[in-house]
Design a protein that fits this description.
The complex is a heterodimer of chains A (112) and B (114). Helices cover 0% and strands 53% of the residues of chain A. Chain A contains no helices and eleven strands. In chain A, the strands form two sheets. In chain A, strands 2, 4, 5, 9, 10 and 11 form a six-stranded mixed beta sheet that branches. Chain A has a five-stranded antiparallel beta sheet with strand order 1-3-8-7-6, with no helix packed on it. Chain A is globular. With 114 residues, chain B is mainly beta. Chain B is 0% helix and 54% strand. In chain B, strands 2, 4, 5, 6, 9, 10 and 11 form a seven-stranded mixed beta sheet that branches. A four-stranded antiparallel beta sheet of chain B has the order 1-3-8-7, with no helix packed on it. Chain B starts with a strand and ends with a strand. The relative contact order of chain B is 0.34. The chains are: A mainly beta (112), B mainly beta (114). The interface between A and B is medium-sized, with 20 and 23 residues.
């Protein structure tokens, strides 16, 4: 029940295309769903996060879509750029606990 | 702020040796996390502290691993004795309740056990 399942493992997108990464969870007590971005040789960094009281959150080219009934959420990167090439992790938590459960990660490569 | 500081950045050691990884969290953060990252297992939470007290160590792989947080500005992760399968990148992260629990990760320590 503590798992967060992420797909795909890797993704290749052309510059200007849309990148979509999906995650699913089981624990309905989760109330905080962040996405982290990790560049090679660096630690992960928070990209965008959503709470379950909204179905969508947009920040620039990055959008989280959240489907509470399906227990799924996804990251959409519009107009993908080579600089977006990184590993993306979804995560979930009961926010008051402070502990994040991470998905397995998606390695995104945006081709010029 | 300097962010989360980890040392050393790289560590190469022989099987059986003791390894100590160090972390300085962001000042004012009251949560500290230790993670391990490998290709096979992804990003795993090993242990986390709140106000210097260990809250959940269920991710610590075995008794060879231990972690301490003697004060709010310093934590260590020790592996004794080390084994080749411990080779990984170890991250420290910190967060605060007032920061809505956003976790800030350090640059990591790449550990290689030969």
């Amino acid at each position: 029940q503590q798992q967060v399942k992420q797909s795909p493992q890797s993704l290749i997108v052309q510059k200007g295309g849309i990148s979509i990464i999906n995650c699913a969870y089981e624990n309905t007590a989760f109330d905080y769903f962040p996405w982290y971005q990790q560049f090679p040789g660096k630690g992960p960094a928070l990209l965008i996060a959503i709470r379950p009281d909204v179905s969508e959150k947009k920040e620039g080219r990055f959008t989280i879509s959240f489907n509470k009934s399906a227990k799924q959420f996804s990251l959409h990167i519009m107009d993908s750029q080579p600089g977006d090439s990184a590993t993306y992790f979804c995560a979930a938590s009961m926010i008051w606990r402070g502990k994040l459960i991470f998905g397995q990660g998606t390695e995104l490569s945006v081709k010029p | 702020d300097a962010g989360v500081i980890q040392s050393p950045r790289h560590e190469v050691t022989e099987m059986g040796q003791e390894v100590t990884l160090r972390c300085k969290p962001i000042s004012g953060h009251d949560y500290l996390f230790w993670y391990r990252q490998t290709m096979m297992r992804g990003l795993e939470l090993l242990i986390y502290f709140n106000n210097n007290v260990p809250i959940d160590d269920s991710g610590m792989p075995e008794d060879r691993f231990s972690a301490k947080m003697p004060n709010a500005s310093f934590s260590t992760l020790k592996i004794q004795p080390s084994e080749p399968r411990d080779s990984a990148v170890y991250f420290c992260a910190s967060s605060s309740r007032t920061g809505l629990y956003e976790q800030y990760f350090g640059p990591g320590t790449r550990l290689t056990v030969t």
